[in-house]
Amino acid sequence: MSKYRVWFLLVVCNLFWAGNYVFGKYVVAEMSPLWITFSRWAVAAFVLLAIAHFHEKPDWKSVVKQWPAFIILGLLGFVGYNMVLYTALDYTSSTNAALVSAFGPGVMAIFSLFMLKEGISKLQITGIGLSLLGVLVVLTKGNILQVFQVAYNRGDVLMLAAVVMWTLYSIMGKKLNGIKPITATAMAALFAVVMMAPFAFAQGIDIANISSLAMIGISYMILFPSIGSFVFWNISVREIGASQAGIFLNLIPVFTALISWTLGERITLSQIGGGCLVFIGVYLTTGMLERNLAAKNVLEKQAEK
Q: Start and end of every EamA domain (predicted)?
């Protein structure tokens, strides 16, 4: 798969996740973090299994033999990440949660460097810094000093834990042997649902008190962030590595602002400027500039001969 296609998948992937923040804010007010996570993946897991069966045609006997890895992936990327994220929103604002999650690419790059031995160039480090700066411009409305004035609470700490869980999920997923991305996602989701089921039914849920808006929200979360994003993410991480894929997570606040604008909110100059910085950072981190410069040097040398 070409890198341009992978980058497109990552952009769409994070667009779907941005919508998850918008709809999730409505849903979390009416459903517990456990039931949001369980209901999302109880449906999505079987859809993903069907897609995997017909599209990737895996050897299910060989797949099942790696069940210990799927338990870990299910706990990290499905149970842990989602429940901690929604629990964090009970204690902190969406802005604080997004601010903490903006450090995800940096965490991803550091973990990938030590656990996967993935190299990071100086230009890529610059790209990570620019993208993070762009996110901070968006979140602080142009007042960068506001970052140091935020009072961090339990929710912020939980959000940082969620970022670490997502990082470990991405790295562990890349180490699966001989299992294609959709199959891996489906199996991890299935194991997560099985692990959550006893606790979800013990907690219970009053469906009569769930509004139509919350139902629309959970439906969106099942179809796009749960199915589309996870499939695209796994494909992308395997193609270009966790550190390069991780930088695209900085697009989430930008897309969140755009979605909010379509719902009637005003887009500010700081959001536009911050968005530009994010996209420049993505351009540097993916290595496009390095390849373009290298190609230019080759052409110049050929012209001199």
A: 8-139, 154-286
